[in-house]
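Memo to structure team: turn this sequence into structure tokens by end of day. - J.P.
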Amino acid sequence: MATTNPLQFIQQVRAEVAKIVWPTRREVFLTTIMVFIMATLTAIFFALVDLGIRSGLQALLSAIGNG
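Reply from structure team:
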């Protein structure tokens, strides 16, 4: 394993940090809004699936119980 001295390590870290492209404020805002929209749609979807499964099971169990 190659060893580097602390000064060389810091120079390499600074070089890598300089390559980072930070998102703009608008990009962060739009991405955040998209995450909230997708989370809401996902929650609605799973709530509907849960409601459907629960209704189906209740109908099935009541048919078995009354049968």
